[in-house]
Design brief:
mainly beta, seven-stranded mixed sheet, four-stranded antiparallel sheet, globular
Length: 118
């Protein structure tokens, strides 16, 4: 089983990025997929989750700017990030679990870095 994130990079403040989390060896539609981020010296923060039925969850810090979606046919979950701010800079990870917010995850990706800078 492998989760692979992609789509990170350098973007200017106010810009957009779309991250992808592609799964292999696992059937995504059974899982809730959570996007986390971790900046240097800071705790890991959950930034969105999509349940197996498509229900989505966001913390206030990204609500209205980030959108999570899933394409079960492609075994891929996306994180569309708009209006990016300097404080969004972090390594972004995806994780597969059974229920959003459970704190229990079966699989993790290796992360993709996002830098927001002019």
């Amino acid at each position: 089983v492998q989760l692979v994130e992609s789509g990170g990079g350098l973007v200017q403040p106010g810009g957009s990025l779309r991250l992808s989390c592609a799964g292999s060896g696992v059937t995504f539609n059974y899982y809730a997929i959570t996007w986390f981020r971790q900046a240097p010296g800071q705790e890991r923060e959950g930034v969105s989750c999509i349940s197996s039925d498509g229900t989505t969850y966001y913390p206030d810090s990204v609500k209205g700017r980030f959108t999570i979606s899933r394409d079960n046919a492609k075994n891929t979950v996306y994180l569309q990030m708009n209006s990016l701010k300097a404080e969004d800079k972090a390594v972004y990870y995806c994780a597969a679990g059974r229920v959003c917010g459970s704190g229990l995850y079966d699989y993790w990706g290796q992360g993709t870095p996002v830098t927001v800078s002019s």
